[in-house]
Write a structure and sequence with these properties.
The chain has 300 residues and is α/β, with parallel strands linked by helices. It has a single domain, classed as Aldolase class I (TIM Barrel, Alpha-Beta Barrel). It contains 11 helices and 7 strands. A 7-stranded parallel sheet has the order 1-2-3-4-5-6-7. Helix 5 packs parallel to helix 7. The model has no long low-confidence stretch (mean pLDDT 93).
């Protein structure tokens, strides 16, 4: 049943409380075997992404190869969770990743701005699904959200989800454009109640992108919904997560907020392609005792 969105009881966020929790989380130190296991877990949660105007089939093929072969000298590494591409490259990615566990995700709905008609957004989504996408990453209409047109935002997400069916839908809030924690919480609640399978911070195209405090606000929305409904919703911080230490802080935060059930790539993802190389460097350091040069790792 659709909630009354203007009266949706999204709580006011305690900014000081959020920042205090983040300060305590980032003060943690994870070392030795626990660090190795955490890094492997984070690696398996990454969505390798290429969403540029200069994308080509060969670039997508290279990224798909990397998704399956992260480091030839470390064969016991997991794969990444997924690759994320524009709808016109989905078929290429599907062909390259067949017989693997790596999912194919596609952005849709006039990514990254979201400025288009609902008809175009639905067609964009259909193209991605018809080409074989396992997951769709949509953007909300931030302009309508700022006008207070919450029903419009809700209905748009719900219609996209209806098109997706069993294909998992990640709803991008573009938190850097929302303004404050209260609005992030409101947008999170709207997306969740409209049918999102995941909520996602950012497109990665504007700054600030993902941050620990914003992600914590979104995790709290997921937790509250789970307590009310018993339904798990996934979380994907995206953009600006480029080093292993930060990734481990995110995992600690997820565990302490939502619990161990969310610590799989079914329920938590990183939208951070550059993160993969930093994790690989850290894992090779743990294995060999020396850092390898960045030149040993492909950028895509």
């Amino acid at each position: 049943m659709k909630p009354s969105l203007n009266l949706l009881n999204s709580p006011t966020i305690d900014k000081v409380g959020i920042e205090d929790r983040i300060a305590r989380i980032t003060a943690r130190s994870i070392k030795n075997e626990a660090k190795v296991q955490g890094l492997k877990l984070a690696l398996n949660m990454i969505d390798l992404t290429t969403l540029e105007g200069a994308d080509t089939e060969n670039k997508v093929k290279q990224m798909c190869y990397k998704a399956r072969h992260l480091h030839d000298e470390y064969p016991e590494l997991p794969t990444v969770a997924a690759v994320c591409v524009y709808p016109n490259f989905v078929k290429t990615a599907v062909n390259e990743l067949k017989e693997s566990n790596v999912k194919v995700a596609s952005v849709a709905t006039a990514f990254p701005s979201g400025h288009s008609s609902l008809y175009i957004k639905l067609e964009d989504t259909k193209i991605a699904i018809d080409n074989g996408a396992d997951e769709v990453d949509m953007v909300i209409s931030r302009g309508m959200f700022h006008k207070g047109e919450y029903d419009y935002v809700f209905d748009e997400i719900a219609e996209i989800k209806a098109i997706c069916g069993k294909v998992r839908l990640k709803v991008i809030l573009e938190t850097g454009e929302l303004g404050n924690f209260d609005k992030v919480r409101k947008a999170s609640d709207i997306a969740i109640y409209a049918g999102a399978d995941f909520i996602k911070t950012s497109t990665g195209k504007i700054q600030p992108a993902a941050t620990l405090p914003v992600t914590l606000v979104m995790l709290e929305a997921i937790k509250d919904y789970y307590y009310k409904s018993g339904k798990m919703i996934g979380m994907k911080p995206a953009g600006g997560i480029s080093n292993s230490k930060l990734a481990l802080h995110y995992l600690v935060m997820v565990r302490e907020t939502l619990g161990n059930r969310w610590l799989t790539n079914e329920w938590f993802r990183f939208g951070a392609s550059s993160l993969a190389n930093d994790i690989l460097m850290q894992l090779m350091k743990q294995k060999t005792g020396i850092y390898q040069s960045k030149d040993y790792f492909s950028k895509d």
